[in-house]
Design brief:
The protein is α/β, with parallel strands linked by helices and about 180 residues long. It is about 20% helix and about 30% strand. Helix 1 packs across helix 2. The structure holds 1-O-pyrophosphono-5-O-phosphono-alpha-D-ribofuranose.
């Protein structure tokens, strides 16, 4: 285990199992799009990249991948409430079935910003899947097609999740030692 990690919350095996289940659920939900052009999976960079790379390989449908980069907070351990677009989609989603894939829902601000913005582009449908749903007081409610895990309100890193851009490459999700971000 990485020395900055207090304990492992979700092991590599648990993540892999849950991502497989989420992929199966998405496959079932959008089965009727299989004869058309399937779905568009939008990753919200950078955190969701690893989750989505695994998720799409568990979806048995035609699909396209596209990416948006949004930023809700910088190098701090808590959300500042700012959201801005750093990179927009490369393709049109008009008339398409869109699945937004997030690594984590924390304050809910990112998705509160993103969903109406994408709805204006007239997709056939928009759904959200999130690997982690954090239990946070005052969180903006977000309707999800599915979530991976209900996550305690701790500072979590790994499997795409960072602190100050570090730890994204850990194969598990762990709780960061407070002394790392309280320095
Ligand atoms: C994280 C995460 C989500 C967002 C969730 O992104 O990837 O997109 O915060 O937080 P919210 O529910 O409070 O809006 P971050 O802005 O840290 O960027 P990153 O994906 O590059 O790590």
């Amino acid at each position: 285990m990485h020395p900055d990690v207090k304990n492992i919350l979700y092991s590599e095996e648990e993540l892999s199992q849950r991502v497989r289940e989420m992929g199966a659920l998405i496959t079932e939900r959008f089965a009727d799009t299989a004869n058309d052009n399937g779905i568009v999976v939008i990753s919200v960079l950078r955190g969701a990249a690893i989750f989505v790379a695994d998720l799409v390989r568990c979806i048995d449908l035609p699909l396209e991948m596209d990416y948006m980069a949004l930023s809700s907070y910088g190098n701090e351990a808590t959300s500042s409430g700012r959201v801005r677009i750093e990179k927009d989609l490369s393709t049109s989603i008009e008339g398409r079935h869109v699945v937004i894939a997030e690594d984590i829902i924390d304050s809910g601000q990112t998705l509160q910003y993103l969903i109406p913005l994408l709805k204006k582009r007239n997709p056939a449908s928009i759904d959200v899947v999130a690997l982690l749903h954090k239990e946070v007081e005052g969180q903006i409610p977000v309707d999800c097609l599915c979530t991976g895990f209900e996550c305690p309100n701790e500072f979590v890193v790994g499997y795409g999740l960072d602190y100050a851009q570090k730890y994204r490459n850990l194969p598990y999700i762990g709780i960061l030692k407070p002394e790392v971000y309280q320095k």
